Amino acid sequence: MFGGLREKLRAARDRLGSSIQAAAVKAEPAEKATVDLPALPVIAPAGSAAPVLSSPTFVDKVRVLITERELIVSEKDVNEALSELEMTLLESDVALPATDAIIDSVEKNLVGRHRKIGESVDTLVVHALKTALLDVLGKGFDLKDYIAKHDRPVKILFTGVNGTGKTTTVAKIGAYLKKEGFTVVIGAGDTYRAGAIEQIGVHAERLGIRIIQHKEGADPSAVLFDAVQYAQSHKIDVVLADTAGRFHNKANLMSQLEKIKRVMKPDLVVYVDEAVAGNDAVTRAAEFDRTVGADAVVLTKADMDSRGGAAISIAHTIGKPLMFLGTGQAYDDIIPFEPEKVVDELLDGGA
Amino acid sequence: MMLDGLSASLKDALKKLAGKSVVDRAAVDELVKDLQRALISSDVNVKLVMELSKAIRTRSLEEEPPKGMNVREHVLRIVYQELVRLVWASTDVRLEPQTILMAGLQGGGKTTTTAKLARYFQKKGMKVGVICADTFRPGAFDQISTLCAKINVPCFGNPQEKDALKITREGLAALKDQELIIVDTQGRHALEADLIREIIDLNLLTKATHRWLVIDAALGQQASEQAKRFHEAIGIDGVIITKMDGTAKGGGAMSAVAETKSGIAFIGSGETIEDLERFDPDGFISRLLGMGDLKALVERANEAINPEDVDVNAMMKGKFTLRDMYKQLEALNKMGPLKQIMGMLPLGNMQLPEGVYDVTSTKMVRYRIIMDSMTPKELDDPALINSSRMQRIAHGAGATPDEVRELLKYYKMMQRTLKGLRGSGGGKFNMQRLMKRFSGMQ
Predict the structure, then answer these.
(1) ipTM of predicted complex
(2) What pLDDT digit, counting tens, does each position of B132-167 carry?
(3) CB-based burial of residue A205 (10 Å sphere; 0-12 exposed, 13-18 middle, 19+ buried)?
(4) Residue numbers in A near B216 (CB within 8 A)
(5) Is residue A155 located within the same domain as residue A81?
(6) How far apart are CA A317 and CA A294, in angstroms?
(7) Which CATH number belongs to the domain containing residue A108 in this structure?
(8) Candidate from A92, A201, A280 with C-beta closest to B248
């Protein structure tokens, strides 16, 4: 996961670094010149000597360079590299709006900054990128911590479009929580898709997790209500509520989801999407967030050589933390998402 | 329709060009930039977008517009041609005995599509059988067998068996009386080496006629890479785009098509078993650009290169008869709805009231019918038409004399307009006024 993005980001980082370096080299002769010849202007107030030069920014640059031993990063220095960074992000499935935001942030962070000559360009760039990415990714979400701090049973509702891996994710999170010592019950709320009840049923059986299910075609709200009832009467810690995949542009299905939410009153609504989704990830995350809300996000299929852009897009769009990454077909192929770690790995890993 | 978002942005890009009187380098650059953003935000592979836009840019600037075509039409035609090249043709789907192997990523909709395909071929009168070779996902066999039972298609599978090859071998034997067999497989991605090995073996075992790759419309930049690896493994010869009823634009799937040099076989756009459409590339691109039937327009452009229907020169000389008008209307009819024609005309970006088009295009049909009951003499010399002739014409066309009168009024207006067009100075070709009058006449 994120392997591709990491490589590309490193390349972009090098580019940014080198173009700033190049700018510094260009400034170098000026530095020598000023150091050799007019030792005066430095001492004398620049006010009298400066107007001779047409570009005040140049004077500024030189002054800063000499007096403070710093460079000013200009827009021109980073433009080309930034457009390369833009392409990198787009190629990594970061949606267009999120890409624009990141580029803006990096640019703002770099342009006009004073850089000490001794300070490494790399540090500067990494810092700018890191700030931008962390900004977008926000904080992670610690599920264990959340459950520990809330009244039992903690009810978690899983939503998302078709085929993103909700059912598999429910099973994986069930396995994860069980391993962490919590008791879990699963509500088989996908009563629509043929074979869905059997699918989650087999998972639950394998994992030794209790499951509440009705027949195919039953009202999902009723199933999930029963699951909550069961958890309450049996003092179970967590209810994991699976639902049928639905498209955010189908009003009746979305209102069914609203009804489910009214009936089972979840503590957490978890939005599930796949790491390989492109720009649509933004549209649908926004729509789900708007209609039924989303408290956290799970990103599945992160093992598909994916560049992880969807994580950035979704986080940027709805501003909700990423909780887990699904990384394979086995039950333990799920890892809690820690933004700092991921960003560090992206920018420093293997370097 | 499904591609609304993309259409809107591309349309904007093209509109910008429409406002330009001369297509200069800057205008083309702007169009290409907008086009890039539009395609990228529809998940078309970034590299592909770059190649595409480069080709469009070069051709727009270097190719001489064909005679009879204005610069905007020329650029539009290039955009269209390059986009069509991307999704090339629709995959050939024959109604003959064959085996179809389904391949794709997890959660792409293979199983649902398998059932839809079974239904499609069944409706075409073929004897269809399905093999469930998905031995991994729990409930997969329940899912496909439930769907197959609903449409009475035999479905072979065994949820206890873990060997997909064994199931398929048995399935092929059990379903040997069926004309068409669809093999549903488990979801896999290109990095899962043993699963790729498995599908290679399945392909060899089934000697599949077709190997179709099922791609989720929402799949992003990953699509090309995945398609490439699947293609290397088993030779994909068709792509099925699923989940087109969401808001995803299918750019990833388009890239997959370009990568495999195959075509789009079907489009899945709904949850019921009937929700499967054959793919029509021209329609797809036209919708993509939000411009109706562009293919007809491109053909029209080709006609413009060697015109035969409408003798523009004669018309410009002022010799414009009902017969010319008839030909014009006929040509318009061939080209499709008036709306797109108006869009293609070199009118700049003038705004026409919505609804005008529909009324007028039905009216055009009426006019043609009326002219059909005129004599050749009347067509050549409309001045001949007196009230008794008018009665006769109306009678013959099943129209009222008022309608005939309206037609003649329209003819005179056209004639005047053309004269104005020919003459310099005051009589400027004012389409807007013409349309206003036209809509006033309804």
Answers:
(1) 0.76
(2) 999 998 889 999 999 999 999 999 999 899 999 999
(3) exposed
(4) 163, 277
(5) no
(6) 12
(7) 1.20.120.140
(8) A280
